[in-house]
Amino acid sequence: MQFRNIDGHEDLKSTLLQSVQRGRVSHAQLFHGPEGNGALLLAIAYAQYLACSNPSEIDSCGICPSCKQFNSFNYPDLHFVYPVAKTSKSSDKPRSLDFIQEWTQLVKEERYFSLFRWLEFVGIENKQAQISVYESTEVLNQLNLKSYSGGYKFMIIWMPERMNNSAANKLLKIIEEPPAKTLFLLVSENPDSLLQTITSRCQKTLIPKFRNASVENYLIENEGVKPQNAHVAAKLADGNMARAIDLAKRAEAYKGYAVHFSTWVRSCFKADTHQIYSWVEDVSRLEREKLKDFLHFCSSTLRESFDLNFIPAEQPNRVFHEIKFELEKFAPFVNLKNGRQLLELMDQASYDIGRNGNPKIILTDTSLKMARYLRLKN
Ligand SMILES: [Zn+2]
């Protein structure tokens, strides 16, 4: 993974490169920022740069033996830790190493992915996934071995917020007194939930979300997404590359969502209970995850409509344009009086669905409230 393989983040890359060139490499670093920001890839590229035997000022060389090993994820002094749980194929004390094949496959093939995607990929339930104390023992064992390369030993810990307390305390001891030439790179989306004693020992680098243009460009160049779909996905994903890829791949689903959305707001606005109930009947059949995704879509659409009152769009929203629903005409119904309430309504519905609530009851309740809010005029 070279820096040039990672889209955007140009300023950040120069900062990282300069810190190496000035010999300022802190042995424990925390890359933190929102989901889908490319932080994991940057951590790998940073490690590769340090390991490269012929680096330039702007990147690793990509062809020296170390770079080649990095490219195939076989560099012997590169270790990964990530949340796992017991499955049919793991040992009784599940560790990252049990899943290393799947891990390298996902990083190589999908590059930008969320924790949700990782767990789905390996078939682990979200709430069970953690970094356990067995893992910290493993880390200690690996770091106590002699470095194969003679250079740094890299320990990239993805989602350290999933460490349980005993794991975190054990890791803390290693970070406090690390074996020589060891580099810890913690990649976190939620550093506030890490032990403060750990974060205080790390040099912190904020990895911001991507610019929409970088996301759009990536989708077109690397994922073969049609420009109009890439534009919509980038906008909805708001700088989250993992989400944008996911969205673009499901662009077709969005057309369906747009139809549901337009039917919903029309029947709510008319307060036509018969139509509302038949809509609820229809939409509550979606799988739970799809339903949450749909509500997220509604939330983004409501936000976009609200904004249209103040900033006219350069071009109409494609998805809605295709189904002949004009967001510009709908926009005035989402205003200062009800905008916040409508968005909170979507969040609440999505939360309740996620907590295994009954979709029919939740959607009916949400519709009746929406019918009331949509009639609030500026
Ligand atoms: Zn190299």
Please name the defining characteristics of this protein.
Rossmann fold; binds zinc ion; single chain; 378 residues
Could you characterize what this model shows?
The protein has 3 domains: 3-208, Rossmann fold, CATH 3.40.50; 214-249; 253-374. The protein contains 18 helices and 5 strands. The protein has helices at residues 10-21, 39-51, 65-71, 100-109, 115-122, 133-144, 165-176, 196-199, 212-223, 227-237, 241-249, 251-269, 273-283, 288-308, 318-322, 327-330, 339-354, 359-374, and strands at 28-32, 78-81, 153-158, 182-188, 203-206. The chain has a 5-stranded parallel sheet with strand order 2-3-4-1-5, with helices on both faces. Helix 7 links the parallel strand 3 and strand 4 (182-188). The longest helix is centred in the last third of the chain and has 21 residues, at 288-308. The radius of gyration is 24 Å and the shape is elongated. Zinc ion (ZN) binds next to helix 3.
